[in-house]
Amino acid sequence: MPTIQKTDAEWRDVLHSKNAEPGAFEITRHAATERPFTGRYEQVWTTGRYQCICCDAPLFESAHKFDAGCGWPSFDRALPNAIQENVDRSHGMVRVETVCAQCGAHLGHVFPDGPRDTTGLRYCINSASIALDPES
CA-CA distance, 111 to 119, in Å (whole number)? Predict the structure, then answer.
């Protein structure tokens, strides 16, 4: 159970105050997915830490971001205890959904097809679910 809980109206206000991408509410609170190659962080390689757009919890380090060619920001690992994984049986598939451990925001999915020379994992994340803090 997430430690941070808000109403839909409160989450909408939070996202609006952060100038979140269009669709961020549907993505983070209702597990929608942004179209590939459209998110603001898909081809950003700035050094820093990616955090949850909803609650600012640290999620990923830029050093672990890689170009998977899939159209979404991809990371080979998350920060310890930052992500909760859930079985996702939607759309006739069985996948592993990733959500923020602090607020339950839908982030994306994790797949076992990442770089073999590191973790072998690919955290495929919606840009609208994250914010880059270049100061971290």
Answer: 11
Instruction: Name the one residue in this structure whose structure tokens are 């990442």.
Output: 114
pLDDT per position as a tens digit, 88-135: 888 787 889 999 999 999 999 999 999 999 999 999 999 999 999 998
Q: What is the DSSP letter of 128?
A: G
Provide the 10 A C-beta neighbour count for residue 104.
20
**How many residues in total does the chain contain?**
136
- Confidence (pTM): 0.93
Alpha-carbon gap, residue 94 to 126, rounded angstroms: 18
Catalytic annotation, residues = 124
Q: Which of 118, 116, 34, 24 is nearest to 70 (CA)?
A: 34
CB 59 within 8 A of CB 79: yes
